[in-house]
Amino acid sequence: MAALAWPLSLTFFAETAIAAIDLAFIGRLGAESLAGASLGVTAHIVFYLLAVGIVVATAPLAAQAMGARQPRQVRRVVRQGLWIAALLGVPSAFILMGTEPVLLALGQPTDASRLAQDYLDFFGWTLPWGIGLVVLRNFAAVLGRPRLGLWIFAAGIPLNALLDYGLIFGRLGMPRLELAGAGLASVVAQAAMFAAMLAVVLTTKPLARYRILGNFWRPDWVVFARIFRLGLPIAGIMAMEFGLIVVSQVMIGWIGSTSLAAHQIALTLASLTFKVPLGIAQAATVRVGRAAGRRDADGVGRAGWTALAMGVAFMTLASLVMWTWPEAMAAVFLDLSLPGNDEVARLAALLVLVAAVFQVADGAQTIGAGVLRGLNDTAVPLVFGVVGYVAIGIPAAWLLGFPGGLGAVGVWMGMAIGLIAVAFCHVIRFAFLVRRRHLPRVMSA
Questions:
Q1: Does residue 445 fall inside a structural domain?
Q2: CA dihedral in degrees (371, 374, 378, 381; nearest 10)?
Q3: What's the whole-number mean pLDDT along residues 420-442?
Q4: What's the pLDDT tens digit per position in 94-105?
């Protein structure tokens, strides 16, 4: 589990590091630009998670096919996953080019909404490349080559930083585009990473033997439909989780741009630690899926509980670090010499302390979801998401933030309550399935 999980975790960390570098550069433009980027990122992630939730289903389906020794089925799953990436990513990018009126209708600040649109006019076009990259990463992980994605994203960090520096501030002979430049830099970097990953997959053994682009334009509606059937509940779960974050951000937007900027800083820091259990969750999906494919119920239990133990251990450490140095961590994203940034830093530090409290639950809920995906169990976790995120988390965020008078800190406390509820449900569900020795049906080739 560790051999598969650590490259995946570092890959997700590199992915989030690219976003953190974007925000670090944008933060030098001022709190208003940071607030605009925060709104833009939130709108983008809504579409990204809906599409990625569907293509994430390629991981358990391909892993189960590998466990059942059906390599042709693996190829079919990957091909149709790339189809779905294109069919969902391109329309979503067009939709994001009309986000500003929606933000204004939701009561977000006028200047921040305008800046968010400047950003999204370019940044939205990262969607087709990013979703396709997820499919190729899943393919490499299922075949036991998770480091391939890591090297691609490691190379993408300096590329994205260089483009940010040039296009945001007008350096290195590039035009000064500010937030639009940050979005354009991300598009170029994502397209380059997808092209590099595709080249690696097509030329590196044993991945090249699968010839994933052979007869690419030939539809395979059976597999296409199976990915959607399994992936739609996963997308729903991700939508519920991020819906909690989006609604919380809308609430924080009612307070003002300072709270929005602080929220984005704390959220970025929490996302950095979250990438480790996210990598463990993907490794768990693969390991559980392969055990299920070879009909090994005991292997399913070993893989799932090992992943959960690893995730809880890491997130406990992350919680201690956040609790010890919240001010220093928040200050990384701000130029404290600019007016207004001191207040942003103070509020961000308080939100980091709240994030420290829910780190373990956040890790357990995402690894629990990954373990259950390996068993094709996605419908019941969707119910957990509706209850934990929507019925518990959102009302708690509003009650603590506004009637409770705690503002942005109260909103974050409500988010924490929702995450804890879902984590508990996921762990209990997996324990129930292990006791029943449940194994999913594997598609025939």
A1: no
A2: -10
A3: 92
A4: 999 998 898 888
